[in-house]
Each structure stands twice: as C-alpha cells, then as structure tokens.
Automatic annotation (TrEMBL):
GO biological process: signal peptide processing
EC annotation from Swiss-Prot or TrEMBL: 3.4.21.89
Residues spanning the signal sequence: none
Enzyme class: hydrolase
Gene that specifies this protein: lepB
UniProt name for this protein: Signal peptidase I
Membership in a protein family: Belongs to the peptidase S26 family.
Residue ranges crossing the lipid bilayer per the database entry: none
Compartment annotation: Membrane
SUPFAM superfamilies on file: LexA/Signal peptidase (SSF51306)
Keywords linked to the UniProt accession: Hydrolase, Protease
InterPro entries: LexA/Signal_pep-like_sf (IPR036286), Pept_S26A_signal_pept_1 (IPR000223), Pept_S26A_signal_pept_1_Lys-AS (IPR019757), Pept_S26A_signal_pept_1_Ser-AS (IPR019756), Peptidase_S26 (IPR019533)
Amino acid sequence: MISAIGFTGVIFIVDLLLTRKHRARLLKTAEGRIDNFKEKTDKTALEPGLIENSRAFLPILVAVFLLRSFLFEPFQIPSGSMKPTLEIRDFILVNRFAYGVRMPVTNEVIFPVAEPEQGDVIVFKPPHEPEKSFIKRVVAVPGDLVQYDYARKILRVNGAVVNKEFMGKTSDEVADYNLYKETLNGSEHLIYTNQGPALRSSYEWLPAAGVVVPEGKYFVMGDNRDNSQDARYWEGIRRVVQNDLANSGDNAWGFVDEDAILGKAFFIWMHWQGFYPSFGRAGLIE
C-alpha cells in the first residue's frame, strides 16, 4: 500500500507542479485559435488517464492507510492454533489504537494508551519470523514469573496454577480435545488440550523454576494448547538453530517485544464457509 501511495502521490505532485500548468497554457492557446473551442471540447477528457486516476485514488489510499495504521486492521486466521476461540478462515478486526498510537512503518509507540494485560488476544510480529503476523493470547506480562509443566500441561503464573475448569470432550478433523474454561486476570475463555498424554518437543525451553518476563516483553500462548507453536517453543528453536545451548542469547526468542505488537484482536466479523461468507460466528473475542 505504501508503494501505491508513493506512486500516485508522485504522479499527483508532478502534475500539480509541472504538467497541469503546461496543459493550461495549451488550452489557452487552443481557445484563441479554434472557434467555439469551449463548446466543442470536454476539458475533463483532455486530462491523461494516469493523472486522473492518481488524483482520484490518492485520497482513498491515504485514508485506508491511516485507518489501518492507527485505528482498525482486518486479519484472516490461517491456522487452528487459537481454537476454539478463533477458527481457520475467521476474519477479525484488530484495534491498532488499544495500546497506543504507533508510527505506521516502525510500529514504535508515540502516544501510549494502555498496556497489554493477561488474557488479551494480540496480533504481533514473532521474534523468529518477524516478516509474519501471529495471533496468540497474553498469559504473562512484564515482571511475572511464568512456569509451564510440559508433561502435565499445567500453566503457573507467579507461583499459582492458572485455573481451568473441565467442560467436556469434543473433536474435529484434526484431533480429539478436552475443552476447558480458563481464567486469566479475572477473564474467562475456552481452551483445548489434546486428549491423551502430551506430545513432547525437543524445543521445550522453560525450566521447571520458570522465568521472569523481562520489561517490555510478553509471554504468549495459543488457546489450542497442544497444537500451537508459541513462546513455549520459540526460544528452544533459537538455541538449536544458533547452536546456543548455553543461552548466551539470554532467551532472545522467548517473548514478544512490545514494539512488535500490532494491536488487540477484539471482533470476529465474518467466517468464510466453503464458497460463501457466514456471519454466524460474528461477535466479540473473549
């Protein structure tokens, strides 16, 4: 979009400063030499199509850019890592203003509004793939001690087990799940764990004693707990890829940086069902 704005903007400015004056001089000369020139000629048809289209689309592109940069941005859910909260092919809105006004390109906060809280669903650029946008739930904020028992699938924050209430069993084409109602920061939401024992990963990195979330960082997890590549594993990937088992990188990929957060996901506005849109899932994101 930035390139489109730049292209149309350059065409508009060049026309404004150079070619528009030249066209006006040509028209004035033609009016003096051709009888009834004004009556015979549609002046709007004399404007080149490229210039006309650039002038028409520039304000629209700028308005959309500002809307997406500072207010709301649409996203499509590409994976099942946030089931049952978000399904594949859900279309959501992200509040870009929730945590402050950010610079459009650098994403740096220039006017802070609030800080992410436990339980918020956020869209962000992950440390291991910064060219992509991920969506997960914040489970620990700066200063929190976070622990995760990979074998028993137990999450602890500041020494306390995060409460989850068993709601039943369910399944889809991917797996059989246990459905729980989890409570974070007084807010309830649903999560999945796979039925049966945990499938262990070589990228597990959180020690039994846990880690304290650094200032300006956030620890995030998917609601589909056994089918989500999230902060429980990113740092383990870094240590293997960079051959840094001694952790000289100081848990560099273990958290989401506050400047990598794009906004708070707050609304499902459509779900693409096969070949047509469905609005049955429309509503606020818990």
